[in-house]
Amino acid sequence: TYIGSLLVSVNPYQELDIYTVAQMQLYRGVNFFELPPHLYAIADNAYRVMCNEYNNHFILISGESGAGKTEASKKILQYYAVTCPTTEQLQTVRDRLLLSNPVLEAFGNAKTLRNDNSSRFGKYMDIQFDFKGAPVGGHILSYLIEKSRVVHQNHGERNFHIFYQLLEGGDKDLLCWLGLERNPQKYTYLIQ
After folding, report:
1. Contacts for 11 with CB less than 8 Å, ≥ 6 apart
2. pTM of the full structure
3. How far apart are CA 4 and CA 6, in angstroms?
4. Is residue 100 in some structural domain?
5. Which residues hold ATP (predicted)?
6. Do the annotations mark residue 65 as ligand-binding?
7. Is residue 123 part of an annotated ligand binding site?
8. Which of 25, 52, 75, 123 makes the best surface tag, with the fewest CB within 10 Å?
9. Residue 191 belongs to what H/E stretch?
């Protein structure tokens, strides 16, 4: 639902057929309250106001653990990737921003009691547009907010994914060079 220019959404914990290219086209260029509330309406409104006013705009995504903040940011990036003027540079910017997510998730996500892939970090994404509205650059600043998770986890939770992924998929030479063994049971940090 909308509350003024805010969107309140609930994570359904399942895939819904509301994030398609057809939905993106439906919300593109439409007046804010003309269609039912949607992330794409928020993304489109921020983009159009930025282009019309030649002013910086932002979308703040907030919520509890497991609310779907990371997914919402991915959906907004995908919306801009599909609906903004297409250039070769756009493809590069889009790919770098979207493809950086799995890397950030490996290093900053962990299993919690509420969510198997819970982000344990904050993220600020900045996309720069040219005067025509085409994305020309961007960067992501992230900060770890649960450093304590490295040395302690609550019962039923896990450390950051990267530790398990490194032991499971790391090349034998890399593990040897790092002084690691493949068996996660040998590490206090992973079996608490």
Report:
1. 66, 67, 68, 71
2. 0.76
3. 5
4. yes
5. 63-70
6. yes
7. no
8. 52
9. helix 188-191
Domain assignment of residue 28, yes or no? yes
112 marked as part of a ligand binding site: no
CATH at 97: 3.40.850.10
Integer angstrom CA distances of residue 1 from 5, 33, 73, 141, 186: 10, 11, 18, 29, 49
* Residue range(s) defining the domain that contains residue 137: 1-149
- Position 154 in a domain: no
pLDDT in tens, the chain (192 residues): 888 778 888 888 788 889 999 999 999 999 888 999 999 999 999 999 999 998 888 898 888 877 888 888 889 988 988 888 877 776 777 777 777 878 888 888 888 887 888 888 777 888 888 888 888 888 888 777 777 877 888 888 888 899 899 999 999 999 999 999 999 899 887 877
The number of distinct structural domains making up the chain is 1
**Two tokens, residue 83:** 């609906």
159 occurs within a structural domain? no
User: What region does 103 belong to: left with phi over 0, alpha with psi -120 to 50, or beta?
Assistant: alpha
Q: Is 122 known to sit in a ligand binding site?
A: no
Phi and psi at residue 160, to the nearest 5°: -60, 145
